[in-house]
What we know:
Chain A is an alpha/beta fold.
Amino acid sequence: MKKSLLALAALAAVSASAYDINGAGASFPAPLYFDWAYSFQKATGNRVNYQSIGSGGGIKQISARVVDFGASDKPLKPRKLDKKGLYQFPAVIGSIVAAYNIPGIGDMKLKLENKDLAAIFMGKIKFWDDKAIAEDNPNLKLPHKKIIVCHRADGSGTTFNFSYYLSHASSDWANNIGIGKALDWPVGLGGKGNEGVSSLIKQNPYSIGYVEYAYKLKNKFSAAVLKTKSGKWVSPTEDNFKAAAKHAKWTAKKHFYQILALQPGDDSYPIVAATFILLPREAKAKDKEVTKFFDYAFKNGDETAKKLGYIPLPKETKDMIRAYWKSNGIF
Amino acid sequence: MTRQDRRVLTDKIITALSFIASFIGIAALFWILGVLFYKGFTALNLHTFIYDMAPPGRAESGLRNALVGQLILVAGASLIGVPVGVLAGTYLSEYGGRNGKLAKLVRDISDIMMSTPSIVIGAFVYAIVVAPMGHFSGWAGIIALAIMMIPIVLRTTDDMLQLVPGSLREAAVALGAPKYKMIIQVVYRGAKSGLVTGILLSIARIAGETAPLLFTSFSNNFFSTDLNKPIASLTVTMFNYATSPYEDWIDMGWSAALILALFVLGANITARFLIRKKKGEK
Lengths: 331, 282
């Protein structure tokens, strides 16, 4: 036993020339980070170990400094970043869809008013053939079945962005539930991570949940047509996500703090969100290794991002992020 | 109905109920094993053992890093847990006395430790190892598992050594053997199969643990044997894969479960076999 342990240690020493990074956080971009890390390792030998534990966990673990980078879909305000001693930059943009599992009703067939979606997640609309839903869907045969609400059970940036959107769409939601990474859900089943919510939707007919678009693609879920800020019906398609993402106004001074939900424009899908990377300010040497990975991903990862259903950051934003790294001495 | 009839009837009802209860217990075990074999074998192939974890949908995807990580964690925990547990158990049985104050205290504490939820041990090790070290590490996982293992080994060792008749000890001492020789050559030898059984059962127990590893050894998507870094384990991988939305990952989660179940089952059966052998000797 001892001998083989020694042999293993020797083996580890040989491969130690390449570096290792550990990151943890948001499940929303996790499929993409896995993929980026996989090709980064193939290209450079460096290993980026990303674990999907939720945005809440990501912020917590980077604040405790037990990982090299954290990831969160909820951007931290500049003041909070100063307090925790963190840098922040966006990595990719994604979209949250209202995914439903109603036998017989296909993708983008169901239309949901933003305030009705809030009512569903508050348990105020209980059945699929409720008048409020039927009004907007005169051509659908809605079943008289109880709606099974699926939501996150862990601290989640997806929940933060989703509840931010609902709070602005429904005053009832804003007053009673509010905005947060973890909410006091009045109804529904809780799942861990986008992964958990996806399996809940899959397993329960007549359910609805909110997941990142990549999870919708992977699971071939049906997603609802929602309304833009201006009140136009808008389908969850990549063009409409991009239309919303165009309105982002990033500034390095605010550490890229920006919430992308409910952007103006008749094609702007209402729940688009960037996902962020958090780096400790004191660990410059390690930060340089992390930014090297994201620089590689910015250069080579756009195709993978698109394939998985994310929106790559525009070139100007990437350059702005590189300038931000340089000015802080972490690139 | 006479009194005798009533008693016979009661007897029959109770017998039937116990039979049904034991059948349910056994059926559940075979049901679990059946599902595990059925689902686990669909994704189990050579790739499982020669490739590391990969993003969903890749052909070159396996569990090699998790398997190796699991072996290292369990072996490391055993290297710490078994000697400490056996020596402490020896103290309790041979030096502490059945009713010694210190011995009683140690016994009570180890009983409490045995019933501590494993997630609490994970949180404890996070606070004393992971946070000060500044990163998740294989060592933290090993320490968490070893902490779980010590009270189990300690108690079984204590019990097994006490089964060795006092007359054997007296005989050894009467022949002029010093106490340490008496313990090593007479008491240990007499309790050998019991000791090994206890150790095997404790290994089987910790091998299936996920909770203490979640925030100690964390997980690693890559092959790593460096105990100063996060390391993959079968249990955490199984948890992540089984809850994922990807078909190929879910299938591999089943394979991980099957491998783990076979390992634990193997250890348990070996332990039973040793117990039986011991009974046969007597």
